[in-house]
Structures are given as structure tokens and as C-alpha cells.
Amino acid sequence: MDYAASFYFTGAEIALSLAGLILLLIVAWTGDRSARAVTIAAVVALFGAAFWAGHLLLGQSFALGGDAFGGLYRMDGFANFAKLLIYLATIAVLVVTPRFFDARGQYRGEYPILMLFNAVGMSMMVSAVDLMTLYIGLEMSSLASYVLASFLRNDTRSSEAGLKYFILGALASGIILYGMSLVYGFAGSTQYERIRIVFAADFPTGALFGVVFVLAGLAFKIAAVPFHMWTPDVYEGAPTPVTAFFASAPKVAAVAMLVRMALDPFGSQSDSWQQIVIFAALASIVVGALGAIGQNNLKRVLAYSSINNVGFILIGLATATPAGASATLVYLAIYVPMTIGSFAALLMLRSPAGEMLDTFDDIRGLSTRRPALAWCVLFLMFSLAGIPPLFGFWGKFVVFQAAVQADMVALAAIGIAASVIGAFYYLKFIKVMFFDEPEGQIEDSSPVSHWAVLAISTVLMSPLGYLLTPMLDNVADRAASSLFFAI
């Protein structure tokens, strides 16, 4: 075993772990007064990890990837693409976080540390090529997420969200662990490569049950129907910056983990799980769209929007082709700034007294009171709806194109038809902001950090985003091909 190469490949995770431990000691010595300094240090550490992931992703000498620690961990383009999105999303959330908690006097130094350890867990998830590594990364990420969801200890809604997330998350972890035990029992190994070889030669019914249990547990993590029930309640109850985090970085990690799991150890048996993924994709699109129509709380609307978008992402996975995997990565790269920007705008909606405004009633006539904010929200909502010429359209286009190329024309046609339903509640934002009479008061200004995140997200989702398509498609194709090369 080449430990030098192993440490080199896991440099980002090691650096983030050390940074988290050092910052934890600093917080223990200095208390909450160092919270902002710790946040800045955490952002710097994440930028370093993002740089390292980009170095491994774009470096020609790492094009073929490599295994670390005896085949427990794989460094390849697919994992590094996902890690880059995870780190950048976590940075964006940390940038817009402090003001929310400062207004309540509850910003603690442990918050950015939990985000760092969460990022480490997510990194392990997307690089895992062994069931044990996968489960350790999954639990590391999940345990930090449970605490983050209930971070506002004096808020009953936050405590309720944390408890619901913990109970249902523990159930999903149990399902995954049971499925892993079945897979191990029939394959005789926890390593993806060995499982794929054994199942290619013989795939008994018991192993099929194991695969179904594993995929069902992972479907909970990405909030795919029918395992989506926790999403609206947790998104509404958790602190808004935490909700922004849940809707972005962990979503990327869970989807990447699911794609690798489906295409690597279970890739030889794609016929056994494709129908399940197709059902989850179409059901998520429809349920996410219909569920959002009757909602008045903006965070619940965005929760159903995330369920809806997961459906489109799963269409790429359902193809079980390199083009589908590449389309999934492209969609994730577009989905992250759309989501982060939407929640950044939500964090800017405050009353003059400092209370958060999070219902449609609160944004009535927003265009007359804060026109710049209203126009940014318009761009982001139209982009989430996939309306051209905004960049969100490209994400839907590539997954439908991959489905057509895989001879799944019916799946693409149904997905396109179902996407029209979701346009209704996105258009509701525009109707309320631009055509309704103003109600109540809204804060006149917002911090520069919030505007920076919102402006970057809006520009990326504008037609200018299409300038990135050659580079994005090229990098996504390379990342997806590295996954299939390993297979």
C-alpha cells in the first residue's frame, strides 16, 4: 500500500479534519466571541480544499484517478467534481450565515466546525468504493446535520426539525445498513469492485433485496419520492442558512453517492434497478410540483422544489450511460447556485424589526419596495422552472437529451410534460412580487455578503451562464468517463 499516494489523494479531507480539530480547540478556549474568526478560518480551509479538488480534477496526470488505503477510497474526476460543488456550496452558506444567528444572539463557534466535519463526511461519501467507507462518511455527515437542524435551541420549530430529521435519518441508516449486510452476505466482500464481479456472474433474489434496501435508504438522503416526507418539515423548521445548506451540499453528496453506488457495484445489474429509479424520478417530479402549489411558506415551497429537481436529476441516472452520468453532474452544477441564490434572497427578506419574512404574503409588491431583489428572484425562479434563455434550462435539456440518446423517449416525454406543472408555483413568485399590492414593511438594505452571493448566483443563471457550457460539459464528460473507466 502506497501511503504517500493515499495521503496525497485524501489531502482535502485531511486538511479539513485538522482545521476542524484546531478550530474546535480554539472555540473551547475562547468561547463564542471567536465565532466570526472561526467562520473566516473555516471558509479559508474550504477554499483550500476546493483548490485541491480542482487541482486533482483538472490535472492531466490524475485523469485516470487512483485508489487509496487498499481500495477503500477512490480519487477520480467524478468524486472531485462533486467535492468542488460541495466545498463551494458550503462556503456560500457560511458567508451568509452570521447575520441570521447574530440577530438572535445565538451564533456559536461550533456552527462552522460542524459544517467542516459535515464536508469531510460528504467527501468520504462521494469517494467511497467500499461499503464501510461509505457508511462512515454517511454517518459523519448525518450526525453533524442533525445538530445543525436543531441549532436554534430556543426555537421549538428548530428542535422539532432536528428531532424529525434524526428519527427518520436513523431509520434510513438502518435500512442502508441492512441492505449492506445482505449485499455482503451474497457477495462475500464490501468492496465495490468485488461486488460487481460476483453479481455479474450470479445475482440471486436475496442480493436483489439488498440492492433495493440500499437504494431505498439512499433515496431518503436525496429526498426522492416516496422517501421525501421529512423534507418540507425539516426545511421549514431548521434555521434558514441550515436549510440552504441541506438543499445544496448534502444533496450533491447524496446524489453522487447514489450514482456511484448504482453504476459501480450494481452496474452489471442495471436492469434490476432502472425501473425503480424511473419511478422515483417521475414521482418526484410530479409530487414536488403538485405539493408546492398549495404552500404559502417560501421555505416549504423551496423544499418541494428540491424534490422536483431531484426527479430531473434521477432521469440522468436512469439511463445508466456515461452521457446520463455527465448530464447528472451538469444539472447539479447548475442546481447549486440556483438554490443558494434563492435562499440568499430569502435571508434578505426581513422586517425593520429584524424578523424573518418567509411567506408569499410578505413578498407582495416586492418589486416596488426592493426592485433589485425582486428581479434577482425572478431570474432564479424562472431558471428553476427551466425557462429559456436562462441557464436552468440547460440542466433540464442535457438530462432529457441523455434519456433520448438512451432510447428512453417515453421517459423524456413524460418528464417534459410533468415539468410544466412546476412552472405554476414558480410563476406565483412573479405574480405576487410584481402584480400584488404591497403589504407590511420590509428592511431597506442587506449586507454586502448577501448581495455578493445573490449577484453571483443570478449572473450564473442568466443567459451569460451559457458561456460556461463548453467548459462545464467538457469537465462533466471527463468526470463521468472516469467513473465508467473504473467500472
TrEMBL record:
Its EC number(s): 7.1.1.-
Known catalytic reactions: a quinone + NADH + 5 H(+)(in) = a quinol + NAD(+) + 4 H(+)(out)
UniProt keyword annotations, A-Z: Cell membrane, Membrane, NAD, Oxidoreductase, Quinone, Translocase, Transmembrane, Transmembrane helix, Transport, Ubiquinone
Topology in the lipid bilayer: Multi-pass membrane protein
Protein's recorded name: NADH-quinone oxidoreductase subunit N
GO molecular function list: oxidoreductase activity
Protein source organism: Qipengyuania spongiae
Assembly mode: NDH-1 is composed of 14 different subunits. Subunits NuoA, H, J, K, L, M, N constitute the membrane sector of the complex.
Entries under InterPro entries matching the protein: NADH-Q_OxRdtase_suN/2, ND/Mrp_TM
Entry's transmembrane regions: 6-30, 37-58, 78-97, 109-128, 165-187, 207-230, 275-294, 301-323, 329-351, 372-394, 406-427, 448-468
Functional summary from the UniProt entry: NDH-1 shuttles electrons from NADH, via FMN and iron-sulfur (Fe-S) centers, to quinones in the respiratory chain. The immediate electron acceptor for the enzyme in this species is believed to be ubiquinone. Couples the redox reaction to proton translocation (for every two electrons transferred, four hydrogen ions are translocated across the cytoplasmic membrane), and thus conserves the redox energy in a proton gradient.
Cellular location(s): Cell membrane; Endomembrane system; Membrane
Domain NADH:quinone oxidoreductase/Mrp antiporter transmembrane positions: 128-422
Protein family (similarity comment): Belongs to the complex I subunit 2 family.
